[in-house]
Design goal:
This protein is α/β, with parallel strands linked by helices and 203 residues long. It is built from nine helices and five strands, in the order ααβαβααβαβααβα. It has a five-stranded parallel β-sheet with strand order 2-3-4-1-5, with helices on both faces. Helix 2 packs parallel to helix 3.
């Protein structure tokens, strides 16, 4: 590899590491997404979003009321695509984030830095929104992050196993109205793909 190529490879590796994508998700791309009649439209929208991505791309809200419909795979595919274009990205699993923030508060550590990083990053994925145990404090932190990003026009992709109405019950109306304000809302339908081929895997 030439020196510039090596530099790019190192930069990409650093970006991937700091993006926080779990090991199991690093290989999730559009190429290995299992497209069928249920998810074809969702896949096309996500692919287009990644291809045409820019600072004013707005938000995607991917939801389905059951797990295993490919939401996280699509969010990872977008992130992995953008990392290749050297877009600084952050992939956050919401329940884990809030647990970590709670633990910091418990240790009297400052959570402002964490929140600020999430607000400032050029591209953000909030995965599994609505799965977290909710308290007023957690609700407030989510509102701060989502409201700030929407207000400053920073693009994000949000995945959830809750529809709009259910999310309003769990969070609050103000947060959800910010989410859908300039987002493409995509329902991912179809069977739970994690159960596909389970017969062959059972002994």
């Amino acid at each position: 590899k030439s020196a510039p190529e090596r530099k790019r490879a190192i930069k990409l590796e650093t970006l991937i590491e700091s993006a926080g994508i779990k090991e199991a998700y690093k290989g999730k791309t559009f190429d290995n997404f299992d497209v069928d009649k249920h998810n074809k439209k969702a896949c096309e929208i996500c692919k287009k979003y990644a291809e045409n991505f820019g600072p004013s791309s707005g938000n995607l809200f991917l939801y389905s009321e059951q797990p295993g419909t490919g939401k996280t795979h699509l969010a990872c595919a977008i992130t992995n695509e953008l990392l290749k274009k050297f877009v600084v990205s952050l992939f956050v699993v919401v329940p884990e984030l809030l647990n970590e923030m709670n633990a910091k508060v418990g240790r009297n550590e400052d959570v402002f830095g964490v929140v600020q990083e999430i607000i400032d990053v050029p591209f953000l994925v909030l995965d599994d929104l609505g799965k977290e145990k909710i308290t007023d404090w957690r609700r407030e932190q989510l509102y701060i992050i989502i409201n700030d990003r929407v207000a400053s026009g920073k693009p994000m992709v949000i995945t959830s196993n809750c529809g709009i109405k259910e999310l309003e019950k769990r969070l609050d109306r103000a947060t959800v109205s910010r989410i859908v304000e300039n987002a493409q809302v995509i329902e991912c339908t179809g069977p739970d793909r994690r159960f596909t081929g389970i017969q062959e895997r059972m002994f």
